[in-house]
Structure formats: structure tokens, C-alpha cells
TrEMBL record:
This is MotA/TolQ/ExbB proton channel domain-containing protein. One of its GO terms (cellular component) is plasma membrane. One of its GO terms (biological process) is bacterial-type flagellum-dependent swarming motility. It comes from marine metagenome. Keywords: Membrane, Transmembrane, Transmembrane helix. The chain crosses the membrane at residues 17-37, 49-70.
Length: 146
């Protein structure tokens, strides 16, 4: 199978404005409460800040490894920048793959599996089908993955 027959369009990353607006809104509410409350000192206290942030960090390091803590940074960034796949592109790719399988047989999809690696769910399903797994087994495994 020629690689140019099945075009895998990669998912795009987009900025999630809702998360950023939510964070800005929370800080705006805190700022407004400080402004309306009169004295910023009643809201901002160095000792309480040290207890809250220092205590949170200390308890977190007791409960989790540094590797797990650094993974949370990545997870936090993923809440701001999300991956989006256009349903139209995904549907067209599936049609191309199914057409190729009907025209040249299931084993012809072996050449497609490498290009599907950015799409783990699709890659897993096509690989299991090419390997000769029964359809009901593939369906059950993919249903559990969903």
C-alpha cells in the first residue's frame, strides 16, 4: 500500500480560553474582596501564606515522588492547551482505511499502522485486526478502552 493513499491528519493543539478565564476570574474575585475589605493586611498575611503553601508543598512531597509532582505540571498545562481532533478529518481517514482494507485485504493495513501511532486508540484497533484477532475480541477491548 502506498503511504500517500491514507493521510493521517494530526490532532491540533488549541488554547483553552475557558480555563484561563476561570483562573483570572478567581484572582479577580480575590482582588475585589481585598479591595472592598479595606485593609489588604487582613487578607494577605505572610505567616498564613507560608503555612498554606509551605504546608501544601511539604505534605505533597511526603505523599508523592518528585517525578509524580513534575507530571502534575504537565497535566496542568494540558488543562490550558488541549488537543482537538476534527471529527470530519477522523471520519475521512477511517473511510480511507476501510476502503484500502476492502480493496487490498486486511493485511494491506500493515503499512498504515506506523502512521497511526499518534492515534493510540486507532493504532491499537488496526494492529489487532491486522494481527488476526477476532472481531468480537477487538470490539470488546476497544469498548473497555473507551
Amino acid at each position: 500500500m502506498a503511504d500517500d493513499q491514507v493521510q493521517i491528519t494530526p490532532a491540533t493543539k488549541t488554547f483553552d480560553l475557558a480555563t484561563v478565564l476561570g483562573l483570572l476570574g478567581a484572582f479577580a474575585l480575590i482582588g475585589t474582596a481585598i479591595y472592598l475589605g479595606g485593609s489588604p493586611g487582613s487578607f494577605v498575611n505572610l505567616q498564613s501564606i507560608l503555612i498554606v503553601f509551605g504546608g501544601t508543598f511539604a505534605v505533597t512531597t511526603v505523599c508523592f515522588s518528585f517525578a509524580e509532582m513534575f507530571r502534575t505540571i504537565s497535566a496542568s498545562l494540558k488543562s490550558i492547551i488541549r488537543t482537538v481532533r476534527k471529527p470530519k478529518d477522523a471520519a475521512l481517514q477511517m473511510l480511507q482505511i476501510s476502503y484500502e482494507a476492502r480493496r487490498n485485504g486486511i493485511l494491506a493495513l500493515q503499512g498504515v499502522t506506523e502512521s497511526l501511532e499518534p492515534e493510540p486508540f486507532l493504532h491499537k484497533g488496526i494492529t489487532m485486526i491486522v494481527d488476526g484477532s477476532p472481531v468480537n475480541e477487538v470490539s470488546g477491548i476497544l469498548q473497555r478502552d473507551l
